[in-house]
Amino acid sequence: MTEMTTVEILHGEALSRAANQAVRAIPPAWPLTATVAVNPFLGQVNETLDQTAARLARIGGVRLALPRKHYAYKIAAGEITDEDLMAALQSNALSNRIDLPALKTAVAEEPQPVVALPTVAELAAGGTGTDWPGLVSERIGTFAAGFFDQGQALWAASRRNGLYAAWRAFATHDLTPEIFGLKGFSIHVDDTPENPHAAIEQAALSLGLGAEPGTYFHQLLLSVGGWAQYARHIQFKAEIEGRTDTTALELLAIRLVFEEALYEQHKAAIESEWQQVRRAHVEPISPHFDTVIDGLLQVAAERASQRKLAATLAAPSAIKVAELRPFLQAAFCIDVRSEVFRRSLESVDPGVRTVGFAGFFGLGASHKGFASDVAEHRLPVLLKPSVFSCSAVDHDAAADQQARFRASAVRAWGRFKLAAVSSFAFVEVMGPVYAGKLLRDGLGFGTGKGPDAAKPRFDPSLDLDARAVLAETVLKAMSLTEGFGRFVLIAGHGANVVNNPYCSALHCGACGGYAGDVNARLLADLLNDRALRRKLAANGINIPCDTIFLGGLHDTTTDTVTLFEGDLENDLAPADIVCIRQWLAKAGRLARAERARRLPGATADSIIERSRDWSEVRPELGLAGCRAFVAAPRARTAGRSLEGHAFLHDYVWRKDEGFKILELILTAPVVVVSWISLQYFGSTVAPSLFGAGNKLIHNVVGGIGVVEGNGGNLRAGLPWQSVQDGVDFMHEPLRLTVAVEAPQEAIIDILRRHAQIRALFDNEWLTLFAINDHGQIAWRYENGLRWGPQKGLDLVEPTKIAV
Questions:
Q1: pLDDT in tens, 701-748
Q2: How confident is the model at residue 445 (pLDDT cuts 50, 70, 90)?
Q3: Is omega for the bond preceding 460 within 30 degrees of 0, making it cis?
C-alpha cells in the first residue's frame, strides 16, 4: 500500500465522519399524519445555547432570540428585575466584561441583522443575478416530493437502490437546470460516482475542502429545510429498530453535486470569495458580543418566570380538599392544556381529585382501528410497542367487511378525482353534486373523525399474570396505589378540528400524533377486571370492590370530555353518570372561559364553533406557553393557577422504592416535554429554519408535510399561527424549568448514570430545581452534579437519604 493510498483512505474517513456529524446535527421531522414534537437542537445538546446560536448565525443567518424590544418592555414593566439581570450576568462566564448598566444599554439597541456564510450557489447568484439557490431548492424539492410520497402522488418515484440512485436517474433526464443556465448538468450528474460516499468525497475534492469541511456540510443540509429533517427521521426510526439508514447522507451528496456543478461553471468569478468562506467554516465557533447579550436576556427572562413559579407553589392553596373518599378521581395527561381543565374540574366539587400522568398511561400500544390494518403506535416515539391492540367486533364480521369496502371505495373515488385523464371531466360532471357538502362544511356543520365506537382490546390477549404486572407497574408509576375513589376516570386527550393539515400536532405531542382514547380505554378495562384486582391485592394494592374505572377522551380544542361508559360490562347508575357529566360540563365551561382570554378572537361561547370553522387558523393554542414541568404530589399544585404553562406529573417519592419511577420520569417524560418546549422555542425565535411558515399559503406535499406556495423546501416545525397571534407572540420562548420533589442525592445519582440527560441540564437546555418538603422550590442544579440554594425563599436543610 502506497503512502498516497493511505492518505486517500484517511481523507475519506475524515470526510465520512464529518458527513455523519452533519447528518446528526439535523433534527428529525415526522410526517403530518403522525406529528411528533421534536427538539430542533437535538444535535446540539452537548453545546450551550450561546454556542448553538453562534453556529446557526454562521450557517443559517438567524438569531436565537426575540427582538430586544421584547425584553426592554418586560424590564420597563418590572417583569424582569435588576436581580434577574444580575443573576444572568453571574451565571455566564462569557459576560465578565459586561456589567448591569452595559447590559441595560444593549437592550435599547437592536443588533445588526445576522448574515450567514454564503454557499457556492449563493456566491454564483451574486455574480450572475440568477437565483441559483432557488433553483437548487426547487429541483431537490420536486424530486423529494415524489420520492418520499406516502400516497398523495399518482406516480411516485422509484425507491429502488435508495435516494441518491433515484435522484441520479431523475437528474440525468431533468432539463430544467440546463434551461436555467447550468450547462451540462445532466452530463455532470451522469459522471458522478454511483456511490453517495464517493460522490461526497469527489465533490469535497473539487470544492477544495480538504479533509475538514467544518460547518459547511451542516449548512448544506440546513439549506434543504424539512427534506433533510424528514430524511433524518427515516434514519432515526431505523436506529430505534436496530437498523441503519443513509437517506440523509445521500441527500447531502445530492446537495453537494449541485454545489460542485455550480462551482465548476463559476469558479473564476467566485474563487476568491469561496476561499474566504472555506476558511471561515473551519474556524472555531465563538459567540459574538450580540450573541452573549441575547443569551443573558434569555436567562434573565427565565429567572423571572422561575420566580413566578416559585411564588405560585409557595402560595396557599385556593381550594379546600375534603378528607373523605373522593367520589371522582380523574387521571389526565401531563399536557399543559390539562392543567387548566384539571384545576377547573377540582373547583366544581370537593369530592373531585385529579391525577397527572403521561397520556399513553404506560400502555405502549401498537393499535389497529376498526376495519383497519394500519398499525398506529400510540406511545412516545422513543419507545417500542409493548402491547398490541385492535378495535374489533367479534360478533359482527359484516360490519367490518362493509367498513373495509367503504374505505376502499373512498380511496378509489379519490384517485379517480385526481387522475390526469379523469380530473377535468370529473369537475365538469360531478362538481354540482358537491354543492351540498361544500355548503354544510363551509357553514361549520362538518366534523372531524372521532374515536372508534368499538371497544379496544389486547390482540393477542394477555394472560392474567401479564395483565397484573402491567397494571401494577402503571398504578405505581401514577403514585395511585391507595385512596381509590368511587369512580376513576382515565382521560386520554386529543383534538378534533377540520381543514387543518396540522391536526395531528394538536393531539399528543409525543405519541406519534394520536389521541389517547385507546390507551385510556384499555387501562380502564384492565383495572375493572375482578380477577386482576385479586392479584393486585396480593401485592398490596387494594382497589375497593365498588370502584369503577371509566375510559374517557378530553377534547383539548373544545374542552369537552367523552365518556366510554358503553365499554363497561355493567350499567352505571343513571344518577352517578349524570353527576359526573355535569361536573365535566361545568369544568369545560370554566376552562373555555379561561382559554378564550388567550386565544385570538375567541369567546367562551365561540370556542366549540371554531373547531368546525374551515377558515380558522387557530382552533386552539396547542401547547403554546409551555415553560415548566413539575413532578410532585398534587397537593403542591392543587388550587394554584399555573395558567396552562406547566406540565404536571403526580409523583410521591416516598412511595418510590429504589427511585425507579423518578428515573423513569427524568429519562422519559422530561425528555419528551423538553422536545415539545424546544420545538416551540425554535419555531418562535428561528421560524425560517425551524418553523413551518404561514398556514394561509401551505400546500400539503407527499402526504408528509407542507410547502409554502407551489414547491421548494419542505417546512418542518410549527406554523407561525401556532406561536403568534398576528401582533404579539402567544408563546414566550423560555427553556423548560423542571421542578421535582425528591431527595437531591437521588436526582444526582440518576443524572450520573444518564449522560445525555445530564447534558441537557449541564448545558442549560433545561433548568432543574428540587422542591423541599414544604412544597417550595429550594435548590437549583448548577451543573457538574452540584446543587445551590434558590435565593429569595426561606430554606430548610436538604433531605438526607442514602442512595
A1: 988 999 999 889 999 999 999 999 988 999 999 999 999 999 999 999
A2: low
A3: yes
The b-or-e profile of 705-720 (16+ CB within 10 A means b, else e) is: bbbbeeebbbbbbbbb
The helix, strand and coil proportions of the chain, stated in percent and rounded to the nearest 5, come to 50, 10, 40
Strand partners, 562: 553
Contact (Cβ atoms closer than 8 angstroms) between residue 239 and residue 97 = no
Say which amino acid occupies 764: E
Roughly how many angstroms between the first and final C-alpha of the chain, as a whole number?
A: 56
Residue pLDDT, tens place only, 193-246: 999 999 999 999 999 998 889 999 999 999 999 999 999 999 999 999 899 999
d(CA 67, CA 77): 16
Grid cell, residue 532, equals 386482576
| Coil, strand or helix at 444 | coil
Distance in angstroms (rounded) separating the CA atoms of residues 164 and 162: 6
- Residue for cell digits 409523583? 651
Q: How many CA atoms lie within 13 A of 445 on its CB side?
A: 6
Please tell me the distance from the alpha carbon of residue 219 to that of residue 229, in angstroms, as a whole number.
Answer: 13
Q: Exposure string (b/e) for 130-155, b if CB count within 10 Å is 16 or more?
A: bebbebbbbbbbbbbbbbbbeeebee
Distance of alpha carbon 289 from alpha carbon 63, whole angstroms: 12
Q: What is the DSSP letter of 14?
A: H
CB 89 within 8 A of CB 103: yes
Residue 486 CB-density burial (10 A; 0-12 exposed, 13-18 middle, 19+ buried): middle
* Rounded Cα–Cα distance for residues 740 and 746 (Å): 11
Q: Is the pLDDT of residue 2 over 50?
A: no
Which pLDDT does position 133 carry in this prediction? 97
Q: Are the C-beta atoms of 226 and 716 separated by less than 8 Å?
A: yes
pLDDT tens-digit map of 295-341 = 999 999 999 999 999 999 999 987 776 678 999 999 999 999 999 99
pTM over 0.70: yes
Cα distance between residue 122 and residue 262, in whole Å: 10
Query: Based on C-alpha coordinates, what's the Rg of the chain?
Result: 28
C-alpha cell at 378: 400510540
